[in-house]
Amino acid sequence: MKNIKTNIWLPVVLIPIWYFIYHNLQPGADWLIDTVFRMPGGEHLTEAVRFFVFEVPKVMMLLTLIIFFVGIIRTFFTPERTRKALEGKKTFTGNVMASFLGIVTPFCSCSAIPLFLGFVESGVPLGVTFSFLISSPMINEVAVILLYGMFGWKVAAIYVGTGLAIAIIAGWIIGKLKLEKWVEPWVYETHLDSNPEEEEKISFGSRVSLGWDAVKDIVGKVWVYVALGIAVGAGAHGYVPEEFMATLMGKSSWYSVPLSILIGIPLYSNAAGIVPIVSVLIEKGASLGTALAFMMAVIGLSLPEMIILRKVLRLPLIFTFIGIVGGGIMIVGYLFNMIF
Amino acid sequence: MEIKILGTGCSKCKTLEEITRKVVKDNGIDASITKVEDIVEIMKYNIMITPALVVNEKVVSKGRIPSFDEIKQFLTK
User: Rounded to an integer, what distance in angstroms lies between the CA atom of residue B3 and that of residue B34?
Assistant: First the structure.
């Protein structure tokens, strides 16, 4: 019991400390570079190191804080509850709900199959299930925090908004097309009743410790990618010419959006690795729409996930899925290239 | 005692299996440990998120890797 008490009080003590450190990172980085290491100001190498020394702790701190809170929020949204909420929901409302629930329900691509089966076999419509499967990996907290940290809240909001729109509309279209015939037949042969065994009652203290677990788990896994990505960013900072990506991924070339999507699908990376790369692309002349489309294709449409889903879906359905989501991403890409 | 670890073979499932085996060994618990990888079998336990730990046909944890001590509690209760 004593343990659980500390669990609740620890964050209350740590958050002001977090806030203080976070707001002193830039002076801290400057002090380290200019006073401790006495690196000559204005040179490429100095500025690259400065960028790295400031960005890595900044992004890591943001990640820790948000993943902690998202981790707690997620204990309230179990897949069972989400399924209960979606059962029997028809078309559009269901798609909207599924897309929003996809953001907060915990998901990992290795659970894609049990989740898919659990939804479909208990009567959640196929299109609604797809809305969930699209939004859940694409709009994840790591992606959103990193976008916020590197480009500000507007880009993060655009990403979430358009990601939701794609999940809702793509799922809705898949539902309208009545593609159940392309789901492996054994899926529908079993019927699950969705009355789960008594739900575990969780105390608030254990929710907080589950939040810590999420931090340890996710931050422990992604810090390497974040550091690597930012190192690439820092390296490219002064060395790669500004307009390097302009011809390939700039606004002027019409083919840049579909090309980035095609390159993005087989690439598999988690959000933590891809956002710093995207920031490099944008800095080197890629346009915002093209870069966002690239990112969505990388984390939203991943080849390994398709291969996993092949166990339950026939190829035509997988290609339809890729086609519709890819089309959605393409529209988003062109749209933002037009606006910005 | 009959222990089953449900999971389609992701890294989390392997970690869960390792910890469980260690708990059983360190505490001299008399148990058989089976890894269930067949998705149809897994679905019979009505879970949607892996890995899951099943003790005597009852799901005791799902979607996360419980700590060493937690697993010890599950097995010695």
Answer: 6
Which SS3 state, helix, strand or coil, does residue A124 take?
Answer: coil
| Among candidates A80, A114, A196 on the partner chain, residue whose Cβ is nearest the Cβ of B39 | A114
The minimum CA-CA distance between A83 and chain B, rounded to whole Å, is 10
- Chain A positions contacting chain B at CB under 8 Å are 79-80, 83, 106, 108, 110-111, 113-115, 117-119, 121, 186, 190, 192, 196-197, 210, 213, 308, 311
The reported pTM is 0.83
Domain for residue A198, yes or no? no
Range(s) of the domain holding residue B22: 2-76
CATH number at residue B19: 3.40.30.10
User: Using one digit for the tens of pLDDT, what is the confidence trace for A222-275?
Assistant: 888 888 888 887 877 666 666 666 677 777 678 889 988 988 888 766 677 788
Helix (H) or strand (E) holding A327: helix A315-339
Quote ipTM for the complex.
0.81
Extract the tokens encoding A99: 């897309």
